[in-house]
Protein 1
Amino acid sequence: MAKMWQGRFKKELDSKVNDFNSSISFDSRMFEADIQGSIIHVTMLGKQGIIDEKESKAIAKELSAIYDDILQGKLLFDPNAEDIHMFIEEVLTKRLGDLGKKLHTGRSRNDQVALDLRMYLRKQIDEIAGLVKSLIKVLVAKAEENLHTVMPGYTHLQRAQPITFAHHLMAYVEMFKRDIVRLFNCFELMNECPLGSGALATTTYPVDRDFTAEYLGFEGPMLNSLDGVSDRDYCMELANAIAICMTHMSRLSEEIVLWCSWEFKFIELDDAYSTGSSIMPQKKNPDICELIRGKTGRCAGNLTTLLTMMKGLPLAYNKDMQEDKEAIFDSVDTVKLCLSTLAPMLDTMKVNKENMADAGKKGFINATDCADYLVKKGLAFRDAYKITGSLVALCIDKGVTLDTLPLDDYKQLCDKFDSDIYDAISLEKCVNERSVVGGPAPRAVTDHINKIKATVLKEENEEN
Ligand code: ARG
């Protein structure tokens, strides 16, 4: 098809260059935003008397028809079109003749693409945030089932102090909670309308930018037209929010990989969410977790792509910016896919409470509490710490734990020990005593869960 911009040219575009230049293979997904934007633009043209009001209505009507035809599969995207914006305009002009050519009055593809991308990404943010919320819901439900499931907490992947599985899962709830805030923060920052910026310097037509901004759901028009067409902060910000959210999913995935290994056996994944090996019949592999971990690299890469793509661009629009879409779309698709796979996988996993408790029993995770016991009996913490260290060494020599070390041995190292030491270092007690805000005690975790239910999960509870 001849190009819309052919007037200045004597030759047709080389077909390979056309392919190189074309973005329709990846920007066609913005068709809804493009058509909505055009309908409001043309309505404004009519209202302002820039084109005849009847003509404006006829164009808007045909744009709606094009939208329906695309939805119903009656109109297919032309892979040779330059981009989705040109494609829709070309179809319109084919259908309406000269009238269709009036749509682009007072507008440029530069403000059009900036508008479409913002509108498309706003919707994606809502969807992603919804999926993060569903994931939080699953984590909270699992936490509620495991308020008393004692397990070792780790530092340096060494058993450190007793916590509960609920406490561990709720740490991720906090991360995902921040992800939602970050996503909506992006939404707010991108919610200004670039339409009317024109190619770079607005237009001489009396366009009403407040009208188009309002009817397209924006807070208002962007206040500088150069910025309007060349700002891609919103892509970088969203790519960043997604990369961080993926990083959280990746860390959780890594823990699940560990937890379902024979070395831990803290959890078992449902068969529907694990895979086998082509050669080793005994294998049950956590491929989903590994893929999420792997795809996190991709999303970090997309952020780097966008930052690097933008860093040397002079104002205003440059074609480099067409590269924004594949990067941000890939991040959007990837995070949605990962969120919607991770949630049901967590929901269906079995928690092996006994193995967690067993792991808690080994590894001296109650040593801090043993030292605290002596502090409560009047010793300075550093002295208590040293005595407990010697006790641990003694236990290792004898092949016992602090719970099974005879009282006489305790007393030999410090006469402050009495038979109540065994109760003081029971893992349940160690957990229950840590009941300050943010702690692992069932009481503290229940408070946390209730806060999350009353805030992040509020609407969902009301709907139920
Ligand atoms: N497909 C282009 C993009 O994605 C649309 C803007 C083109 N504008 C231009 N002046 N060539 O960025």
Protein 2
Amino acid sequence: MQKPYVIDEMISAKSIAARLEELCREIHDEFQGTDKLVVVGLLRGSFVFIADLVRELDLPIEVDFLEASSYGDGMESSREVRILKDLRGAIEGRDVLVVEDIVDTGHTLHHVTGLLKSREPARLKTIALLDKPSRREVDMKADWTGFEIPDEFVVGYGIDFAQRNRNLPYIGKVRFT
Ligand code: PRP
């Protein structure tokens, strides 16, 4: 049985949108001129972030998805990253932007970037909406980060708690009652 909890707003939808605009300006500068950018969303957590991100990018892009999982329905990372769904397209010689919702222990992004680098893209960059540096277990940092947050259990804007609350339009903090 799930313990009862409430969700306190931590980062508003408005703050996320404002930060996204800033990040997209930087991404735009990095990738301007390319006609071979593939934006890769890591499922499932990044589905809201990538949807907003690509609509803010004025670049010719393709979108692809990769599903990695290390948490299942639990709150602790298993540290064993499984690829549940691979990319549809080849990325050799392409520019790639990997979109992640949150970097926690870092195992997921570390594993995924290692895998994608082995496919020899021309350029591989990463963006994470949230970063919890205090939880890091491997040396990993996204090239762009939306917000650094403390070690709180967060949900919303794509991020789940036992598969719930992904549809909240803001980032909230879980508080058990
Ligand atoms: C969550 C989250 C990140 C990853 C971050 O994914 O979406 O991908 O964990 O944690 P890490 O830095 O400790 O590896 P999860 O495995 O829960 O799958 P989901 O995206 O389907 O929710």
